[in-house]
Each structure stands twice: as C-alpha cells, then as structure tokens.
Design brief:
Shape: globular
Number of helices: 8
Radius of gyration: 27 Å
Strand content: 15-25%
Helix content: 25-40%
Largest sheet: 6 strands, mixed
Mean pLDDT: 80
Distance between the termini: 83 Å
CATH architecture of the largest domain: 2-Layer Sandwich
Strand order of the largest sheet: 5-4-7-8-10-9
Structural class: alpha+beta
Length: 302
C-alpha cells in the first residue's frame, strides 16, 4: 500500500464533516464540536462527580439485605430495588428492622434509620446490610468514598452533608452521635471501619438481655417479681392492623385503607387507639410502625 493511501482526508476547523451513516440512512453533517464544556461530565471510578453535582433525588441501584441464621450456611438475600430517595430509605430501613426483629433482635427502628440514611453520603453505592447474631448485630457496608475521620463522625456537629442531601436527611452531624448515645446506654456498641477497597462498614450491636433467672436461681428476698405487660383488649380490626404491620412494615392510613378496606375515618380511629396502647408509633412520612411491645403482641396473635 502506498503512503498516499494511508493519509486520511484533511478536516479544517471550520469545514463541515460527514457523520457515520448506516445502511439506507442519509448522511448528516455537523461542524466539529469544542472539546471542552460541550457535555456535562460523567462520573468514572477514578473521577466521580462532586457531591453538589450528583442527583440525590433518586436511588438508581439496588440494596441487598443478607440474613444469617448462622455462618455455616448461606444467608437469605432480600433485595430493595431502585426508588425515589425518601422511599428507598424508608423501604430499606423497614425491611432491615423487620428481619432483625424476626430473628429476635432488639435494635430500635430509629437506630437502624439513622445508619441507613448515612448511605446517602456513599450515593447508595453497592449497599449491603448483613443481619446476624439473632438480629442483635447489623452491619451496613457500601463502596462509596468512605469515612476518613471515623472518630469525629461520632461527635455532634461534624458532617460532610451538602445542600442537595438535606432534602432527605437532617445533615447536621447528629446521626451517628444519636446511635452511639443509645447503644452506649443500652450496653451496645457501634464501630466504623474501612471496607476492603473503598467505602465504609458500620456495625451496630446490642447485647442481648440476660436470661431470666432459672428455677435454681431464686430472686433475692424482698425483690419484686418481674411483671410482664398485659395485652390490651383488642377488637378484630385492631388485631388485623397489627398483623399487617407485622408483615408489611411501615404503613400509612392510605396503605391500611387499601389493605383492609376499612373507611379512612375508622382507620384513623384504630391507629389512634393502637398508639394509645403503645403498640405502634409514628415514623417518617406520617407512617406508623410496630413498637417493641406491638411486635411481641403481633407475634403472639399468629
């Protein structure tokens, strides 16, 4: 092949050029585009978008919950799919709370919620939540940028939240401190570590309550016996509501109307009564979720 055959056509800066055309497709012409500023930068593994340029309104990835009965067998996997950010956080929190409760754990919903919201800093990248030790240990991992100053992250007022995040979280550096305060008070713990390559791993654990004294371990003379809370008198509708909360997680009035067919006014009255009994409590978006007592009673009703 001659040297002339290796030389392509010369394109001057202001000369129109032909764009590739497929079979039966007319050619299109356009002038060369500038190399900088023509397109919005796309994130890459080495150069992710800066926090203020990221779209926090929608979580486009799935989160996975791994539920371990023990470490001798593979865990059960539950997937929480893409959704608007508020809905995704709510769904992930509720599923983790439900599975931990079913395993016998006692970590409160609000503690799980605080740690779940922290995934927004990792842009919900490769989220995995592992539940083990009968629901009393929950490990939250991601492959985001990680947490550099782990000690400060557990102190009030230290935060890396930017303005777009604050539509979905408080963003004032109170999340981990609240979790640490509760767990310290309840003889639990929180740890923050680096993930294998990138990202963070947050583990929360709650020490199981001591087993009740056996027949051979009589309480000290004069000690008051432990009185279990009585189950409040529940009508059929209230029992049905507890069953739905047990299986569905957080529910609002509209959800319960759809599930039970009860009128909206009656649904509101029933929820108010369950709140008075201390069986449900309000959570995000005016929804309700079972309290610890409500969960135990709903299990007894099965």
């Amino acid at each position: 092949m001659s040297n002339d055959e290796n030389i392509g056509p010369e394109i001057l800066p202001d000369t129109p050029r032909t764009i590739w055309q497929g079979p039966g497709e007319p050619g299109r012409t356009s002038r060369p585009q500038p190399q900088q500023g023509a397109h919005r930068p796309q994130p890459t593994a080495s150069q992710p978008l800066p926090p203020e340029a990221y779209d926090y309104s929608f979580v486009g990835t799935s989160a996975r919950i791994a539920c371990y009965d023990d470490f001798r067998s593979a865990p059960r996997i539950i997937e929480v799919g893409p959704a608007p950010t508020t809905e995704h956080i709510e769904s992930l929190t509720s599923k983790v709370y439900e599975q931990a409760k079913l395993a016998g754990g006692a970590i409160p919903y609000t503690v799980i919620r605080e740690v779940t919201e922290n995934f927004i800093h990792a842009r919900f990248s490769e989220v995995v939540v592992s539940i083990f030790d009968k629901g009393n240990v929950i490990r939250f991992s991601d492959q985001g940028p990680g947490i550099d100053e782990k000690h400060k992250a557990q102190l009030p007022g230290f935060t890396s939240a930017v303005e777009p995040m604050k539509k979905y979280i408080r963003g004032v550096g109170s999340g981990f401190p609240l979790v640490k305060e509760y767990l310290d008070f309840s003889q639990g713990s929180i740890s923050i570590e680096d993930n294998l390559k990138t990202g963070a791993v947050v583990t929360i654990s709650l020490v199981s309550q001591p087993e009740k004294a056996t027949a051979h371990e009589q309480p000290a003379t004069g000690a008051k016996p432990t009185i279990r809370p009585l189950t409040p008198p529940l009508n059929d509708r209230e029992r049905d509501f507890l069953s739905f909360f047990n299986t569905e997680g957080a529910l609002g009035i509209t959800d319960l109307v759809r599930l039970t067919g009860a009128p909206q006014s009656s649904t509101y009255v029933t929820l108010s009564r369950l709140e008075e009994y201390g069986l449900v409590e309000k959570t995000y978006n005016q929804k309700r979720i079972l309290t610890d007592l409500g969960f135990k009673i709903s299990e007894d009703l099965k």
